[in-house]
Write a structure and sequence with these properties.
heterodimer, A: mainly beta, four-stranded antiparallel β-sheet, 11 strands, B: mainly beta, six-stranded mixed β-sheet, 12 strands, 49% strand
């Protein structure tokens, strides 16, 4: 099983809302990632968690707040977003050794 | 910092023909991994093939194979017997190994949009 599950698939929110994106994997992977992908562009790394500790934050604005409650779950809390934050948000996970990142299907976010 | 360059924004190929997608990269690391991912309109990022830099043998996966030239920092993808289902955006990607608790993300090229003509 190489499945990474992201919910919700679509999300529409206003600039004053608070929402959360969820990502789950049961492959025993110890690294989890958030990427942001704008239309017709490659994914851009936002955050990396390794062994449930934040190891990389690519200078992401504080209106994005990641959380890794346990080794299987990764959340991205959203608050006071801007319309330019509208994008596809991809979650991925990987393990040491094979070094393959497995991606979820993404959450399509629209900020109005 | 590492960079990945895909110089072909779009490629078109007839069904059943062979097509090669180009990728070059720049890094000062000696140990790293290279990947080709495809992203169809359904937006799921799917691994196509993986190459370990310390292995000289080119990776193959069924109709997909790579030409890895480490000295030239080149990593091209060949798709044989192209099928309609191969139509997608193809991204070349690089990463250093995840080991010892330290993880790094993927660095992607800008992508090549592959069109399969019936």
């Amino acid at each position: 099983d190489t499945e990474v599950t992201q919910t919700p698939k679509h999300l529409v929110m206003g600039m004053t809302n608070k929402k959360s994106l969820k990502c789950e994997q049961h492959m025993g992977h110890r690294a989890m990632y958030w990427y942001k992908q704008k239309a017709k562009k490659p994914p851009e790394l936002m955050f990396v968690y390794s062994y449930e500790k934040l190891s990389i934050n690519e200078s992401v604005p504080s209106r994005f707040s990641p959380e890794c409650p346990n080794s299987s779950l990764l959340n991205l809390h959203l608050h006071a977003l801007q319309p330019e934050d509208s994008a596809l948000y991809l979650c991925a996970s990987s393990q040491e050794g094979p070094n393959i990142q497995y991606f979820g299907a993404g959450t399509r976010l629209s900020v109005l | 910092a590492q960079t990945v360059t895909q110089s072909q924004p779009e490629m078109s190929v007839q069904e059943a023909e062979t097509v090669t997608l180009s990728c070059t990269y720049d890094t000062s690391e000696s140990d790293y991994y290279l990947f080709w991912y495809k992203q169809p309109p359904s937006r799921q990022m799917i691994l196509v093939i993986r190459q370990e830099a310390y292995k000289q043998q080119n990776a193959t996966e069924n109709r997909f194979s790579v030409n890895f030239q480490k000295a030239a920092k080149s990593f091209s993808l060949k798709i044989s017997d192209s099928q309609l289902g191969d139509a997608a955006m193809y991204f070349c990607a690089y990463r250093i190994p995840y080991s010892g608790g330290g993880a790094d993300g993927l660095t992607f090229g800008k992508g090549t949009h592959l069109i399969i003509q019936p």
